[in-house]
Amino acid sequence: MNRVLDGMRVVEGSAFVAVPLAGMTLAQMGAEVIRFDRIEGGLDAGRWPLAPSGQSLFWAGLNKGKKSVAVDMRSPEGKELVTRIITAPGRDAGQFLTNLRVRGWMDYETLSQYRRDLIMVTLMGDREGRPQVDYTVNPALGIPDMTGPEGYDAPVANALPAWDLMAGNLVVSSLLAAERHRLRHGEGQEVELALKDVAAATLGHLGMIGDAVVNGHAREKSGNALYGAYGQDFTCACGGRVMVIGLTGRQWSGLVKVTGSGAEMEKLAKRAKRDLRDEGVRWELRHEITEILRPWFAARRIADFGPEFDKRGLTWSVFRTVPEAVAQDPDLSEANPMFSQLDQPGLGRFPVPGFPGDFSAKPRIKPQPAPQLGQHTEEVLGDVARLTDTEIAQLHDKGVVQSPGYTARSAA
Amino acid sequence: MNRVLDGMRVVEGSAFVAVPLAGMTLAQMGAEVIRFDRIEGGLDAGRWPLAPSGQSLFWAGLNKGKKSVAVDMRSPEGKELVTRIITAPGRDAGQFLTNLRVRGWMDYETLSQYRRDLIMVTLMGDREGRPQVDYTVNPALGIPDMTGPEGYDAPVANALPAWDLMAGNLVVSSLLAAERHRLRHGEGQEVELALKDVAAATLGHLGMIGDAVVNGHAREKSGNALYGAYGQDFTCACGGRVMVIGLTGRQWSGLVKVTGSGAEMEKLAKRAKRDLRDEGVRWELRHEITEILRPWFAARRIADFGPEFDKRGLTWSVFRTVPEAVAQDPDLSEANPMFSQLDQPGLGRFPVPGFPGDFSAKPRIKPQPAPQLGQHTEEVLGDVARLTDTEIAQLHDKGVVQSPGYTARSAA
After folding, report:
1. Which of B27, B20, B6, B33 has its CA nearest to residue B368?
2. Is the interface score ipTM higher than 0.90?
């Protein structure tokens, strides 16, 4: 992480991937991010994968570096408290992210009465506020239909919640853009966006909506081929599998050269009366190209050709499982300055990533672990909501808020 | 799009998905974004999908609302011109995005000599600057290994360039964070990030690195199941396919209730001696749950149960192809204020998306189409690089720059 957003304070009421990721991204750029949750934990408190202790590795991953407040939001005192935290004064405070979409006390109309220049970014399921998740948006828009082995007769969903990830990042951009506007014009605002709209817009940006309308056909499943040019996976003599790319002219000629397949590619081009320097022709002739290249890879071990591929600057990689990648790839270890090994109580010791960007004016610092639920309740009640020690004690005693340490003291 | 970033000027030297998407996202929030390209067009000028005219729907999709300058960067005059455009004065200018990573004249060290407070964000393949694309990063980190039908014996890649999309969004966040820092402290900076690091960090954020290290196992392929709780696809009597979600307790109980499967779920729980209110138990017993639910869906048409699912607020969707989604889903049409039908020369007429976020202080405006290559060469040379008409004419005559209109005039 780093300190480029030093001084900014953001409050987050969230669950699952997108908005927690947004808050964490801001925290990893140095903002103070306060996530509030129900006393029993948010809807994502037990999301898989879990550590052997039963604690959620997922939750810990998406809430790194935040402050955690546990509060009973069904009580009037809890509602008042959350309102005070969200709307607390401070030039760089008054910024709220949520996907909870609570009408009434926690909506923009109400909250902005307590702080006129509030910035609030709300992520919804669809634009009407109906529930949608990554797993439903994706099939509705057709990505699983074009994913999977050639000829396979059913849709194949991503293992990666790509739309959630994108939506979370757009929440960050929206917040930073709205804060820029506030700094220049003194004006807060509400930003609403929907997960489904994020996916729908992206389809348009990638040309898929135009393709559907003007060409009228559904993109076929093409296994692991790179769409629209050449890129393919090959099994090698060692049993490993590689992905090789011939997207640009330079990548393509490098691949042909290193595999010594120039003469055969020329024969293919002549036979088909097509020019393989055209990326679209490489796509259309991908099966024929693959047949030419397959024996080359089948006869060689990755260890034999890999160094040569790197030396020539080819674009390629090896297929791995996640555990193999973690064990073998230095980019997933502390050799990569983005990662630090952290010891995390209840989770274990493993490499934890910071923000991917490296800012020259704000050097990388070690990523912070996720808080325990309610770890910062007392601190935030005092420093942000400006309650006295007596008030804080009363709220704990009434069960309106919870702090792990405080509970222990009360029980003692 | 909208005008929340009104006044900001960003220069972009890019190709393919991530950095073009970053620039376009800024343009769709109202920034002036100037993309420069070689006179023959960038590496992505012909990227598929194509319109029947042969023009790239992909390029048009990722460059909406930008200004285009075509310049010969091999010539000293071209280099000087690009330098002037990037480093032109203006409080909200001096911001440069690139994935071209040209050493020497176009690196941060050189450019920042012309403008001390330059902000430059560079996206690389991996952190060492080696070439990597979405199609190589993804297999290297293990996502295709966990994607695909249960028991399928090969990795299955996404059809969606999810890492590119994410990286592009992080370029936006990095730029906005660096600009915030500059506005407060007067200091520019260089930000470097790598596509592979974006993917590696995300694996960590989602708990997958922790899972690999502390649990040691590779996540199995699970078809279209929602990982870690319950969510599954079902074929219906009408031949359609739906995705239904039981991630939260509320979603799960709603699904059980509407399908009348409560008694059978109870029997299952008793037999297995597990509590289905625990999301992880639903994951572990997902095959048994699916067997209970399958006949219900197989006996019903989507049209029969869909309205009831909506009425009860269930989280579900229908599987579609992209053309089906475009034809059937109002969220992909002008019924959604994010979309406008645009007539685009050489491409056709179809719904074009703006920025997903709706900013209350800066209402949506119609998205702008992509420029023609070089469409704004004259304008930018005059207004930004501050060249005289004579200088602009000389550069055209020497072939250092190109404008579609200008060429026509010279030929006349």
Report:
1. B27
2. yes
